[in-house]
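Bench notes, afternoon.
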Amino acid sequence: MFAGHFAVGLALKARYRSVPTWALLFAAQLCDWLWLLLSALEVEHFRLFFTRNDALQLDLFDVPYSHSLFWPAFYALVVFLLFVRADGRRHWAVPLSLAVFSHWVLDWLVSAPALPFANFGPPVKLGLGLAGIFPAASLTVEAVIVLACWRYYDRRTRNSAALRTWRQWAVLAALLVALLSPPLLQRLF
């Protein structure tokens, strides 16, 4: 899930217009930014492998701080508490914390049961595993999320009943490129 995270950030932007778009998009990807940092520091681990049909796949087999259930919920709470106390930015608290936690929810939806509870507690692995039901399930679910969020964003941000502006189409095009790039890049390697 990549484009889906950005799409949720845009849907939150449509609902909470006073929050900057960049902040919502960054918050929606916070778990991945942490994963990149923690992987570079060798605190978390991943591996790349080729599937039976020669597609490059990413296996996040050790991500207890960036993609567990506990820590993204904790990060969302910290973001909420930071902004609820910030003068002039209190209205950012709810949408930013929702964006942070939405990352885990979307990953849980498509991931096989591989997301840990936390770096402590029960050794349970979470994930609904829609990607494993049929080969294109993950892409299909993400496409539905992207289109639904874009539609919500489009309807709430249009100034009138006039035709969509080039900005709405550009947002959809960017989301579609983000949606289709990972599967296409998998085929190249």
